[in-house]
Design brief:
Length: 157
């Protein structure tokens, strides 16, 4: 689940949440409405429901829904929850060298970075790859990747 409703709707379809924002309108050039297609593939006598915000989720009666498609904005977990943000949302450069550096190439969505860092550092879920590396006598593959440089581009130039 995550943002990107505009990729599920036909070109220029108005978004229910951002009606006046032209950037949030549908972008599909094939004219398909993927939400309607998803709803049409349910078995007969089953009920599907599409929700896009917390209010709709809380108002939903689970006894009346067999299939649920939720399209909410994903928010990465925070290791240290803070009252205020510490990042303004500007572009950042991510540099990696060493084992698992191949996971950080090109451009990635911001929610990808914490997952890559956890995977490379062998913390959290998906640690199966760590056992084979640690048997080689080296430290975790993430020991070289964790000191990532997450610097605002303005500092670099």
């Amino acid at each position: 689940m995550g943002g990107g409703r505009k990729y599920m709707f036909p070109k220029n379809r108005t978004d229910v949440e951002y009606e006046i924002d032209e950037k949030a309108r549908g972008t599909r050039l094939d004219g398909l409405n993927l939400i309607d297609i998803w709803k049409s593939f349910k078995p007969r006598h089953k009920h599907s429901h599409y929700i896009w915000n917390r209010t709709e989720l809380l108002a939903l009666d689970p006894n009346t829904v067999d299939y649920l498609l939720a399209h909410n904005n994903y928010q990465a977990q925070s290791a240290v929850p803070l009252r205020h943000e510490t990042h303004g949302g500007e572009d950042v450069a991510v540099f990696a060298k060493g084992p698992m550096a191949h996971l950080l190439h090109g451009v990635h969505e911001q929610n990808y970075i914490p997952h890559v860092m956890a995977y490379a550092a062998c913390i959290g879920a998906n640690r199966d790859h760590c056992a084979s590396v640690s048997s080689l006598g080296s430290s975790s593959p993430g020991s070289l990747l964790l000191p990532l440089a997450l610097l605002p581009l303005g500092i670099l130039f």
